[in-house]
Amino acid sequence: MSSMQSQQESIETDEVLYSVQDHVATVQLNRPQRQNTITRPMLAAISRHLVQADQDPDVRVILITGSGKFFCAGLDLRGGSGIGEGHFNATLNLRDAPPTVLHQVDKPTICAHNGSSAGYGMDLALGCDIRIMAEDSKMAAAFTARGVVPESGGTWILPRLIGWSKACELIFTGRTLTAAQCVEMGLASQAVPQDQCLPLARALAAEIAANAPLAVQAAKRMMRMSADEPFDEHVHHVYLQLLPLFQSQDFKEGMKAFMEKRAAKFEGR
Questions:
Q1: How many C-beta atoms lie closer than 10 Å to residue 231's C-beta?
Q2: CB neighbours of residue 8 within 10 Å
Q3: How confident is the model over 10-69, as pLDDT tens digits?
Q4: Matching CATH number, 3-209, of 3.40.50.10490, 3.90.226.10, 3.40.50.300, 3.20.20.70
Q5: What is the phi-psi region of residue 161: left when phi exceeds 0, alpha when psi lies from -120 to 50, beta otherwise?
Q6: Which residue among 67, 77, 147, 178 is least crowded, i.e. fewest CB within 10 A of its CB?
Q7: CATH fold label, 213-260
Q8: Contact yes or no for 248/213 (Cβ under 8 A)
Q9: How many other C-beta atoms lie within 10 A of the C-beta of residue 149?
Q10: Domain residue ranges in the chain
């Protein structure tokens, strides 16, 4: 992709918007009239755009947000959505579902939680590396109150984010959390006024994108692997990640910029 193309590229669909600007890919749920509930075509579009962003060498950060007053109120289980009772259980491909794809991408992911989320939408937000919440938004873990479990990663993510006891309390009770409670529990980094949510998330994305992308992605891979590795094995894998980084142009630029006391200009190679 040329530098002019990388400044701004937009690909839009009816209910999921995708754009790339200044090394940041934005995936925006665009169904505000239905609280951004997700249909089967939207599932495929979200996954496709996540893969597209992860494979694009110009993209260094992925930002996920919603249109209107909601981030995502979950899956649309009504007739005509492509997801429904019975049909959901029989045919939904979880391997290629957005939360699974989101967990596998190497690019850092930020959720600009512009409005409330529930169910699948909450799992989608929790699947991101960082969450910035609008202070009037909420997360509703209402799975057991609907006769289901957090089906898209919540039972894996929540104990790792907030510990076993708090995760059990939240999932078993099906509580709704305010943004302030989410920050206090460690589910979100910050809670800010609604009109500052997306700008702050973009500013954070720009700060991350200014660093060496190969190093950032390697750091994310190492942190993800650390969840299932003993310490000795993990530090060995970190060393193996360092070896190719030492040979990269970005490492040389980073060291040169440090010695020259200037901002580095990384190219991702």
A1: 8
A2: 10
A3: 444 589 999 999 999 999 999 999 999 999 899 999 999 999 999 999 999 999 999 999
A4: 3.90.226.10
A5: alpha
A6: 147
A7: Lyase 2-enoyl-coa Hydratase; Chain  A, domain 2 (1.10.12)
A8: no
A9: 11
A10: 3-209, 213-260
